[in-house]
Amino acid sequence: MTDIGSRLPGQVLGWKASGQDAVYDRKTLYDYMDGGAEVYLAFDFRGVFVRRYADDAADEIVLDIYDLGSPAEAFGMFSLDRQDPEVEIGQGSEYGPGLLRFWRGRHFVSITVAGDEDKAEAAVLELGRAVAPLLGPDGDPPAMVAALPAEGLIADRTSYFHDHVHLSNRYFVSPENVFGLDAATSCALAEYALGGDGRARLLVVRYPSAERARSAEASARRSLLPGAGDDGTAAAGKKGWAAVRTRENVLAAVFEAPSKEYAGRLADAALRPAK
């Protein structure tokens, strides 16, 4: 990733490149972010390029450009923590005070501020607009995300990941890995509007084999829905209705549905073969 340094701006609105650029790979990432590396290593992380910009007051802007190996993985990294407004940089972006996040192609970018966030805002956005064109071409988000049932889907609350830790960070189901998630599984977690503030959750997991999907279904029903009937749906107390079903190597789990019918319908829609 060192070649990208020569194409980046050396100065942005009075903020100048400061210190030495750095590159970290899977073996050295802990040297850069001890305590947070696991989040990136759970994806197909290849490396991160780091450049710092400083102004006359010694405030700092830190540019991190992550190579996640594929557009699906880059989208996944971006999707895990969306909470701020879109600013139309790259293929998807968000900006909150002191932090710009976006993705394009196989890359995920984070630009952070250490110091006066308001003063740095214009430079952060300008830097993001300068970096995004260097990371093309665009790429497609994960196919399983694109195939989620559309009715009621809250698109900017949809995430893609692989393991139990990321599921628990996004939506807590159980302290145990009841769905058998690991590096070989691909997961999409979505939220659906129910009217008012109500939201149902849909988890779709693609396993390496149908056998693993069936095993996960049995585990989830046993741990989460012991009262489920043959159709895999059960009342979950104050949290509405839940359902767990499989088709071939894909599992669909619905939580906080307003009715048994809705839980089953959403699960079935998620398992319907793509046209």
Any overview of this molecule?
The protein has helices spanning 29-33, 37-41, 71-79, 117-131, 143-146, 164-170, 210-224, 260-271, and strands at residues 11-12, 15-24, 47-54, 60-67, 92-96, 99-104, 107-114, 159-161, 186-193, 199-206, 233-235, 241-247, 250-257. The chain is an alpha+beta fold and 275 residues long. The protein folds into 2 domains: 2-135, Protein Transport Mog1p, Chain A; 143-271, no CATH class. Strand 11 (233-235) and strand 12 form a beta hairpin. The chain is elongated, with a radius of gyration of 21 Å. The chain starts with 10 loop residues before the first strand and ends with a helix.
Offer a few descriptive terms:
single chain; 275 residues; alpha+beta; Protein Transport Mog1p, Chain A; 2 domains; 7-stranded antiparallel beta sheet; 6-stranded antiparallel beta sheet; 13 strands; 26% helix; elongated
Produce the secondary structure layout.
Layout: E1 11-12, E2 15-24, H1 29-33, H2 37-41, E3 47-54, E4 60-67, H3 71-79, E5 92-96, E6 99-104, E7 107-114, H4 117-131, H5 143-146, E8 159-161, H6 164-170, E9 186-193, E10 199-206, H7 210-224, E11 233-235, E12 241-247, E13 250-257, H8 260-271
Antiparallel strand pairs: 1-2, 2-3, 3-4, 4-7, 5-6, 6-7, 8-9, 9-10, 10-13, 11-12, 12-13
